[in-house]
């Protein structure tokens, strides 16, 4: 009996130990589960907090997007209002111009971008001599871009009409390293000339830039040239500029020349010529020539611009701007027609005394009359030009100002210097012995 009682106690002891062990494991499992539940709850709370923060941020961004959309809408409305204003001003201005005169000689357009101070100087120079010929030469300012100072300056003058060119198309250069600015300028020129020739139907347009001053006889010079431009189809444009127009190289304000080189910097173009050029958007005069003066009718003061002041101090700053009154109405310019000018110019070259060898400047100074110096090629021309101080640069295979390879300039007196190309005498019909 005792043995049975002892065995029973031992069995209960084992059961108790097993029960306690089970309770301990169960408690441990419950504790671990509770910890995991707590961690999960904490994670859920954190996730909820982050979710709410993200929702708040999204809401804020949506508010900003809405605000930006509203701002963009307002700006577009303002731009549309501005475009409408410009168009109304343009229509009003052009309508008023044609009410004054049936057919102007030429529209004058000032090409501008972002230099309000330069533009003001140019406008003041033009208006100084514009009053008596206002009906013959209506003035426009064509702005490339949206510079507010330039727009405000242009609109502040009631004597001119404002146009605005907005171009957001990307520029693709033809060759690496080319300046994008020149492509944008070309686009602006095409747009402005299309507007004046095709939209407003002007017969001729004079193109100026926003860094130019004009001579007192500027308008009369172009009025005289208009008839020549219409009658002689071999003339592509009339220019008011001479690249070698520095004070020491010019003398006679009455003298005009033909040139195979495009002078630019103040030039007049006719509508038939632009009809040909506009689709190409490139200079292509196909053998036609230009009329240029000996003494400039424009002065370029643009030290700062797209060309970064290239040549300014050496070649542009010393330019002589004509201040001599010239009665262009009484001038007979028929000698500038193609068939006559080649003979006229050949006679001048033929009469000049030939010079050879070295020390050409010294030799030229010892001759009373005109002289001519023959150059062999571009390098030879550049060397001779450097000695005298004229423009050395060539473009499209010819030196600046050249006519049939001949570059003419005065040298400190009324003496003419003719730099004659290797084939120039033959092209001029001059027989050599």
Automatic annotation (TrEMBL):
The cofactor is mostly bound to the substrate. GO terms for cellular component: Golgi membrane. Pfam families: GNT-I (PF03071). Its cofactor is Mn(2+). Residues 51-92 form a coiled coil. Pathway: Protein modification; protein glycosylation. Its EC number is 2.4.1.101. It catalyses: N(4)-(alpha-D-Man-(1->3)-[alpha-D-Man-(1->3)-[alpha-D-Man-(1->6)]-alpha-D-Man-(1->6)]-beta-D-Man-(1->4)-beta-D-GlcNAc-(1->4)-beta-D-GlcNAc)-L-asparaginyl-[protein] (N-glucan mannose isomer 5A1,2) + UDP-N-acetyl-alpha-D-glucosamine = N(4)-{beta-D-GlcNAc-(1->2)-alpha-D-Man-(1->3)-[alpha-D-Man-(1->3)-[alpha-D-Man-(1->6)]-alpha-D-Man-(1->6)]-beta-D-Man-(1->4)-beta-D-GlcNAc-(1->4)-beta-D-GlcNAc}-L-asparaginyl-[protein] + UDP + H(+). Keywords: Coiled coil, Glycosyltransferase, Golgi apparatus, Manganese, Membrane, Metal-binding, Signal-anchor, Transferase, Transmembrane, Transmembrane helix. InterPro entries: Glyco_trans_13, Glycosyltransferase_13, Nucleotide-diphossugar_trans. It is found in: Golgi apparatus membrane. Its main location: Golgi. GO terms for molecular function: alpha-1,3-mannosylglycoprotein 2-beta-N-acetylglucosaminyltransferase activity; manganese ion binding. It is a single-pass type II membrane protein. Initiates complex N-linked carbohydrate formation. Essential for the conversion of high-mannose to hybrid and complex N-glycans. Belongs to the glycosyltransferase 13 family. This is Alpha-1,3-mannosyl-glycoprotein 2-beta-N-acetylglucosaminyltransferase.
């Amino acid at each position: 009996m005792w043995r049975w009682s002892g065995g029973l106690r031992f069995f209960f002891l084992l059961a108790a130990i097993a029960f306690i062990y089970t309770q301990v494991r169960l408690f441990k499992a419950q504790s671990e589960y509770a910890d995991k539940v707590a961690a999960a709850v904490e994670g859920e709370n954190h996730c909820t907090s982050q979710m709410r923060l993200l929702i708040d941020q999204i809401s804020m961004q949506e508010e900003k997007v809405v605000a930006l959309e509203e701002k963009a809408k307002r700006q577009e409305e303002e731009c549309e209002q501005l475009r409408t204003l410009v168009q109304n001003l343009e229509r009003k201005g052009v309508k008023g111009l044609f009410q004054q005169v049936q057919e102007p000689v030429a529209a004058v357009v000032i090409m501008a971008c972002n230099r309000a101070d330069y533009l003001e100087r140019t406008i003041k120079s033009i208006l100084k001599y514009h009053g008596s010929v206002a009906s013959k030469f209506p003035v426009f300012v064509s702005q490339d871009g949206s510079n507010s100072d330039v727009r405000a300056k242009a609109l502040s003058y009631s004597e001119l009409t404002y146009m605005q060119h907005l171009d957001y198309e990307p520029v693709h250069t033809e060759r690496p390293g080319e300046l994008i600015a020149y492509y944008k300028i070309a686009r602006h020129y095409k747009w402005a000339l299309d507007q004046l020739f095709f939209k407003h139907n002007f017969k001729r347009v004079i193109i100026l830039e926003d860094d130019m001053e004009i001579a007192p006889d500027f308008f009369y010079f172009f009025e005289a040239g208009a008839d020549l431009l219409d009658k002689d189809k071999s003339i592509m444009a009339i220019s008011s500029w001479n690249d070698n127009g520095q004070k020491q190289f010019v003398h006679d304000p009455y003298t005009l020349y033909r040139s195979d080189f495009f002078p630019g910097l103040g030039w007049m173009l006719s509508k038939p010529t632009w009809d040909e050029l506009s689709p190409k958007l490139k200079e292509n005069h196909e053998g036609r020539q230009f009329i240029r003066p000996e003494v400039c009718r424009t002065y370029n003061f643009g030290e700062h611009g797209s060309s970064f002041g290239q040549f300014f101090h050496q070649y542009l700053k010393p330019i002589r701007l004509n201040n001599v009154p010239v009665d262009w109405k009484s001038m007979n310019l028929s000698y500038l027609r193609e068939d006559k000018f080649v003979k006229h110019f050949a006679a001048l070259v033929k009469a000049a005394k030939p010079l050879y060898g070295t020390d050409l400047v010294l030799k030229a100074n010892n001759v009373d009359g005109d002289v001519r110096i023959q150059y062999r090629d571009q390098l030879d021309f550049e060397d001779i030009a450097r000695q005298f101080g004229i423009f050395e640069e060539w473009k499209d295979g010819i030196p600046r100002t050249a006519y049939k390879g001949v570059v003419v300039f005065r040298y400190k007196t009324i003496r003419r210097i003719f730099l004659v190309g290797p084939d120039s005498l033959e092209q001029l019909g001059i027989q050599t012995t």
